[in-house]
């Protein structure tokens, strides 16, 4: 705690003040012994620790990167999205802080209960719509209700954007985001009670030359089942101590099984000079260092794993596995 350490000059000044009577040592001691009272507002209950807020911020940093990639591909213009703040506050206070006419998308996130709200500033929403319609994306919003075409365009693009939310949450819980409501007036939207604590993640968004905010509002009821998993202790504990759920193991197994790996069948090798290589033409024959009756070497990701014999299957070149090579490590030939 370097900030609590006094320099030599400060120590000398303090001793000088006490010796001259400018400061009373007894009064300083009394002030230290007095109980310090911290004001607590029961209307603004803090139900999340700083550690849990930091975990949510890290998750939404990943979500911001995914959104940047998605909108860049869809709108074909410069897009930059980053997390600027994460706060917990009453739901009523959040609703009062957003514009009267804005774009509100309400999502269910099963298996978690409750709803998550995605609020998009009108400047950002109209910039997105203009780009989709071939415009420059200036983001000039107009007052009044949206037309059916505008509503359909906006709800579709933001519903597809929110699909990236699943990827951001995958290490915590596998959710299935589904849009349930599209609204433009926050006064008509009542997800939870006014005093319910919510976490609001604010994303600063730049699309072309237009800037604005995207706010993700997550009520406490949504996070309650996984709130213990938001602590740093949960993420830092060793894998053998961290209990894995059966669905997590199954999901990991499916991801590994679907991973693509390169498979190479080597018929043999040959060394030729650059001059010989440059003079090759159609019909030339290259002599390999293996016999025709020698099994082929099958490599998986550059690692020898099998031996096989060549053949044909449905008029296509193929190989038939003969045996498995055991004990081979990557890089060993």
From TrEMBL:
InterPro entries: CheC-like_sf, Flag_FliM, FliN-like_C, SpoA-like_sf. Residues 255-325 form the Flagellar motor switch protein FliN-like C-terminal domain. One of the proteins that forms a switch complex that is proposed to be located at the base of the basal body. This complex interacts with chemotaxis proteins (such as CheY) in addition to contacting components of the motor that determine the direction of flagellar rotation. This is Flagellar motor switch protein FliM. Keywords: Bacterial flagellum, Cell membrane, Cell projection, Chemotaxis, Cilium, Flagellar rotation, Flagellum, Membrane. One of its GO terms (cellular component) is plasma membrane. Pfam families: FliM, FliMN_C. It is found in: Cell membrane; Bacterial flagellum basal body. CDD domains: FliM (cd17908). It is a peripheral membrane protein.
């Amino acid at each position: 705690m370097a900030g609590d350490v006094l320099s030599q000059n400060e120590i000398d000044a303090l001793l000088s003040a006490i010796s001259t009577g400018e400061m009373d040592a007894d009064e300083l001691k009394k002030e230290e012994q007095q109980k310090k009272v911290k004001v607590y507002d029961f209307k603004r209950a803090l139900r999340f620790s700083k550690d849990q807020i930091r975990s949510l911020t890290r998750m939404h940093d990943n979500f911001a990167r995914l959104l940047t990639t998605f909108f860049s591909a869809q709108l074909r213009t410069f897009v930059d999205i980053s997390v600027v703040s994460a706060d917990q506050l009453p739901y009523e206070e959040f609703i009062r802080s957003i514009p009267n006419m804005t774009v509100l998308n309400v999502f269910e996130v099963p298996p978690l209960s409750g709803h998550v709200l995605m609020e998009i500033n009108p400047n950002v929403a109209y910039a997105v719509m203009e780009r989709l319609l071939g415009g420059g994306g200036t983001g000039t919003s107009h007052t009044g209700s949206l037309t059916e075409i505008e509503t359909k365009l906006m709800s579709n693009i933001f519903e597809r954007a929110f699909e990236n939310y699943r990827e951001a949450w995958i290490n915590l819980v596998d959710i299935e985001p589904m849009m349930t409501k599209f609204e433009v007036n926050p006064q008509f939207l009542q997800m939870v009670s006014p005093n319910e604590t919510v976490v609001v993640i604010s994303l600063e968004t730049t699309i072309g030359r237009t800037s604005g905010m995207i706010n993700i509002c997550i009520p406490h009821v949504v996070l309650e089942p996984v709130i213990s998993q938001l602590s740093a202790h949960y993420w830092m504990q060793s894998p053998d101590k961290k209990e894995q759920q059966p669905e997590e193991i199954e999901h990991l197994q499916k991801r590994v099984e679907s991973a693509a790996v390169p498979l190479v069948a080597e018929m043999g090798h040959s060394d030729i000079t650059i001059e010989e290589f440059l003079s090759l033409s159609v019909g030339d024959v290259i002599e390999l260092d293996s016999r025709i009756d020698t099994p082929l070497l099958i490599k998986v990701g550059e690692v020898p794993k099998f031996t096989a014999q060549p053949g044909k299957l449905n008029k296509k070149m193929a190989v038939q596995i003969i045996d498995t090579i055991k004990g081979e490590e990557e890089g060993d030939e």
